[in-house]
Structure formats: C-alpha cells, structure tokens
Amino acid sequence: MCRSIKRLREGADVVPDPEIHEAALQYVRKVSGFRQPSAKHRDALMQQCEGRMTLTKHPHGCLLFFPRPAADTMRQVPLETATHVEEGSPLTYRNRPPSSGMHYGTLPQASDYRMYDQPLTPGRWVHMLEHGAVAVLYRPDLCDQDCVNALASVWDSAPRSNLVGGLRHLVITPYQNMDHPIAVVAWGYLDEMDQADKDRILADIRSKMDAPSAPERGAL
To answer: Is the CA virtual torsion 186, 187, 189, 190 positive or negative?
Structure first.
C-alpha cells in the first residue's frame, strides 16, 4: 500500500491543512478499497478527515497518518474577585458557569475530590479551582447515562497531581445553571461542549490542573 499511494507533494516542514485533508481521504480510500465513499458514509468520512490526523512522510516516499492528539480548548474568561464567605451564604456570579469568584471558606479535603451524583455547591468547587483543581460540570437534564459513564471514564483516566500528594486534583459534579451539557472550568478558564468528549476533557485537565494561573496553586 505504501508504494501505491499517490505522492501529493515533496517533503516540507509544514504541510497545509487542505493537503492533509486530501491525503486523509486518499488513505481511507486505499485501506477501504472504495474509490468514492457511498452517500451513506460520506458525511462520517469527511468528519473523520477534518483535522484529526497528523501527516508525515515515510523514507520510501509514502504518507503516514497518526491520530492527532486532542488539544485543550480552554478559553480565558473575566476573573471575579476571590472572596471567602460563610458556609451556606448566598452566592452570586457574573459568569455562567463560574470559574472564579466568591466561595465558602471551608478548606477542601482530599475526600472532596471525586465524582458526584448529586450537585456539589459552587461555594465548594470554586474554592477548589482557586487551589489549582479542575472541575468538570454536567447538566443532569442534558447529560444522559452514556454521557455520565463517559465522565466516569474521564475520572478513571485523569492524571494525578504532582503538587498535592498524588491525588486527582479534580471534581466532577452535576451543575444546572449553564447552557451546555458539559463545561470544564479552571480558575479563569472555561471550555463548553455539547457532548462528553473524553480526549478533549482530559486535554483540558492536563492543561490546567495545578496551573500557575490558580492563585493558591499547590494548596489541597
């Protein structure tokens, strides 16, 4: 197969995205044995070829493809003042969902970092964000059992902290007051998504767990 794949270009340090896309299509055609995908499968094929492969060149001249690692897609959001309030006090935030701002003064404990099936108050998890943790929020009415199962798999695969005793500096909890089924939040950062994309969520976690942007990075 290596010899039969058409050479699209000579080697270059940077390969333009249109050529990666065309090469991905060519690769799929070769391994599937079909010159043109059926109408039934065309949309799925195009989605799989849109920026999801990394292209390199084999010494014999053929193209090699590898899955492109998921990149974190966290975006900065305006910071809110970090103030401690009494446990149970009313909480108000400008951002939905919050990624900074007021929170309860109760110090997080190691056992608090886990996956919840009942909502944990943002007064607790915003405090965790201040310490460098990441929170994965899901809307119970938009995240079905398959979605919840995917988040459980995220928990099982999540990295452990190098700063706070090797625990997962992570909390996964239901949260209703947001527009999307899933949101990943770190202090001052947010990523919203319409389905539980495990690779993307894990990339977000690796990017922001114990990040320098957390005001009290390294605290439990």
So the answer is: positive
